[in-house]
Amino acid sequence: MALLSVTRLTKTFGGLTAVSDLDMEISRGELVGLIGPNGAGKTTVFNLLTGIYPPTSGQIVLDCDGKPRQIGGLRPDKISKAGLARTFQNIRLFKNLSVLDNVRIAMHQNVRYGVLSGFLHLPSYMREEKRVREESLALLDIFNLASKHDEMAGNLPYGEQRRLEIVRAIATRPQLLLLDAPAAGMNPAETAQLTSTIAQLREQFGVTILLIEHDMSVVMTICERIYVMDYGKLIAHGTPDEIKADPRLIEAYLGEDIDNA
Predict the structure, then answer these.
(1) Terminus of the chain with fewer CB atoms < 10 Å: N or C?
(2) What CA–CA distance (Å, rounded) separates 108 from 23?
(3) Residue 203, SS3?
(4) Distance CA 184, CA 110 (A)
(5) The CATH number of 4-97+159-260 is which of 3.10.20.310, 3.40.47.10, 3.10.560.10, 3.40.50.300?
(6) pTM value?
(7) What pairing do the DSSP bridges indicate for beta strands 69-70 and 57-62?
(8) What is the pLDDT of residues 15-46, one digit of tens each?
(9) How are beta strands 225-230 and 208-212 bridged, if at all?
């Protein structure tokens, strides 16, 4: 059974069909790309997978524990607890909170104390808060952000804000991580560092990754399979070499020479 199975997924807004009969399957441990021109429906797919939009029709099945679960239409918090997390193309950090607090907030969906314990600051609450702080700092250290744990998230350079958003997503302990254009707005050095970081995520955290990215150098370097969308429909699927070998896709949907991207 695949970790994620999407069957005939469709989303309409009035008379506009943003996603039409999309089929997609992702196995555990894969790093898969989802590409296509602006307006192709890629981010709408992410919004459907994470509960921001309910599907008009179709199924989204997540199988994190051997018990396949239909998650289409569930609230985002329920989907997150089921094992799916995401980042956004437009960074959505709590910019007026510290770097550490951004990660601690994400970890609190997995805390093991109740409301009463938290209200009264009982020993179980104190133990859990200590654990959350230590694990948050350890995650920040992996992403070279521990030294800035007291800084306001909004004061970080752009590339570090991107990394912090990934840390926050990882802190929810997902089995499937969706990255929405993580290299957007980055300079070449930041992009190279991010590419290396994404490639290491599977090994370090055992997470499966679905990636939207416009930078073809990132996609072709780290993705094992690629889905191509246009006008809300899936038009191609294959390995990076198979995608690169189709000149019609390069010209019509990417507008660039992938080999030189």
Answers:
(1) N
(2) 33
(3) helix
(4) 30
(5) 3.40.50.300
(6) 0.86
(7) antiparallel
(8) 899 999 999 999 999 999 999 888 899 999 99
(9) unpaired
